[in-house]
Amino acid sequence: MSNLKWMPIIRNLLRNRLYTVLNLSGLTIGMAAAMLIALWVQNELRFDRYHRRADNLWRVKTDLKISDTETWHWGQTPLKVLELCEQIPGIVSGTQLLQADHLKAVLRHGPETFLEEKMGYIGPRWFETFDYNFVEGSAAGFGDRPNDIILTESLAHKIFGDHSALGSVVRIDSMDYAVHAVLRDSRPESSFRQNILLPMEAFLRQSDNRKNDERWSNFNYITFLELRPDAKTDVIATQLTQALQTAKQDPKVSILLVPLADTHFDTSVEGDVFEKGSLQSIWSFGLIGLLVLVMAAINYVSLTTARAQTRAREVGIRKIVGASKASIFRQFLQESLLLAGLAALLALVVVHTALPWFSEVAGHTFQLDWKSPLPWLLTGGTLAGTVLLAGIYPALLLAGFQPMLALRGQGKKSGMRAFFRQSLVVLQFSISVALLICTIVIGRQRSFIEHTAMGYDRAQVFGFTVGFSDYYAQGKERGESMVKAIEQHLQQSSAIAAISRANDSPVHIKSTHSGSVKFNGLPEDATPTVAQLSADEHFADLFGLQLAEGRWFEKDKTSDVDNVILNETAARKLGLPQPWLGQRFGFHQHEGQVIGIVRDFHFLSLHEAITPLVIYNSEGWRGNFFVKTQPGQSVQALAAVAAVWKEWLPQRPFEYTFLDEDFDKMYRSEQRASLLFNLFAGITIFISCLGLFGLATFVAVQRTKEIGIRKVLGASVAGITGLLAGDFLKLVLIAIVVACPVAWYCMRQWLADFAYRVDLQWWMFALAGAAAVGISLLTVGVQSVKAALANPVQSLRSE
What we know:
Elements: H1 2-15, H2 17-45, E1 57-65, E2 71-74, H3 81-85, E3 91-98, E4 105-109, E5 112-116, E6 119-122, H4 126-129, E7 134-136, E8 148-152, H5 153-160, E9 169-172, E10 175-183, E11 196-199, H6 200-204, H7 209-213, E12 222-227, H8 233-248, E13 253-259, H9 279-306, H10 308-320, H11 325-362, H12 373-390, H13 392-399, H14 403-408, H15 414-451, E14 461-465, H16 468-471, H17 476-491, E15 496-502, E16 512-514, E17 529-534, H18 539-543, E18 547-550, E19 564-567, H19 568-573, E20 584-587, E21 590-598, E22 613-616, E23 624-629, H20 634-648, E24 657-658, H21 659-666, H22 668-702, H23 704-712, H24 717-751, H25 762-788, H26 792-797
Parallel strand pairs: 6-11, 8-10, 17-22, 19-21
Antiparallel strand pairs: 1-2, 1-12, 1-13, 3-6, 3-12, 4-5, 4-9, 7-10, 8-11, 9-10, 14-23, 14-24, 15-23, 16-17, 18-21, 19-22, 20-21
């Protein structure tokens, strides 16, 4: 019996195939987009919250006050800070992680060599504090032997294939390590993405590591504390600060406690090792997901209310034969539920199909685990939201028709319904135009980043690094002779145009320094912070740096070991007396003079303003090689470097990156945002066009007789097309007026995050408006022309 009740609903949907397809398409696309965005938002908001003790876990941050106007925010602490924690009530336990960019492992198993950059040393109680899933073995006993190692499932498979890794031996440098356990790969919502975990003792027993790191002046360890649920974090932070100030004998250092769940969003930490998210992006994309779903629902409401007059006779007849208002309401609500249910199933198929591509765009691996409640909660929530948005009002509207007026075709509220539909069209296109403007602005900012003159030339330049462990493996002299020999061998290659060595890349100079800058006129208590670059005599020529005054370092000029070169910002902001050239300048316990002023170049992201930079000439700090290739000979240059590398460092795989790739990595989040905005702006416009096409079709049908009479009286096709399209064009123009100020405000806030940015210009808004008008005219015009070309005789014969 229940199946029979659904038959009229199914027959009605099949009878009106065009409107069914339009509604089903709009709902499917809207729900699929909303689900994908919900997956991403849920992943961001759940970062690190999956640990059972997450609510009581806190990260220890340290602040170092450099001056009254400058404070450094570090995510690391001294190694021995856990000793201070033992004295403070409210702290249950603590554990530490050592992870840094320079900590990389070269693993050897048999003849194979594997380089892994994601590694970390963990302290005792790490696995008691954080939750991991083990494929083989367990955490029990890990760390009892310093030669234990834990690998992730993907790395273990890469090294050992399908064989069990448990108990197998791998060599790192000159030490053998036994695989203690194998972990499942990192969850997408985890800050801890190490593929190799080693006991802290394995690091501390090496050479002078323990001696160096037990000093209170070395802040290298990421520390986490578990607090009692009733502990007062501000009191504990104050007590830790007082203890650290006493131990370090430094009143300028202080400690802050940050909840584990906030680690992902804490962008204040200088050079943090953890991936960062943006609450602004979460709210932005969450809002977009909701808007896409709302627009799909608007389509349904618009088309249903537009067809209300057509279905009024059906309602009138059913009421006359005894149907109650409640039963009619239930029928139309079931119709909405059936359509939304079909759309939800199709949306799941679309999400499942699009998930690999979406994972690549978003930078995380998302999976729909059908055994997990998540996909069903997403589907159920989206379905419920769609039915509430798109089902209730049309069902109430249709159930509310008075039977006699409905049979006569005299609905009292047709004018109100028309106004309501027009309002929905305006709302739809306002959202579409606003997103279109945002897409244009974001695209322009991306183009600005890609084409802005950065002040240096990175074309056809790649870099590789000789690590400190390789450099000092056989003593400093042996290391220095090795890098010089590598440089001399490479200079003999005809595929290489130039070679330079430095401690950092001009794309992003990460190294900063405070405390040793000295020059005449600098207040005694001033400790300005500067970026620092140790570069050789070839650096300026290779990267095309321009000198405003003076000269660059010269080869074999011994006095240049003490001399420095400043960028223009450093000369101005540090308050160096004029004339700048020849001024005495102390840096890193060297006393020399300023020999050159280099024109400012962007050695930081365009999010940040150019800061003071001191370039000095210290041989021992230059482990990075930069090679500029001859045009079209990159392959030959790489082969030449690989051959020299194999000769001198055969135990390590050769790794390199082109500076263009490094540059692109800095702006990957902007690239993803731009791509996602393009995608969802396109979806919103497509959904708007579906609704507009359906309404135009319905209006053309409603005005069939009018169009026939006008043609008989001599109206042209162009005139009739303009008549039908004009009403919709007015609505789109209103939407543009509404959307422009909203988009202007949103983009003004977004661009404020860039120190260097494009200006919001009138043509960006005009272009988006023109695109919206063009798309709407094309959509409506197809149906308008079709109606205008119809035979007027057939139009006038129709009932």
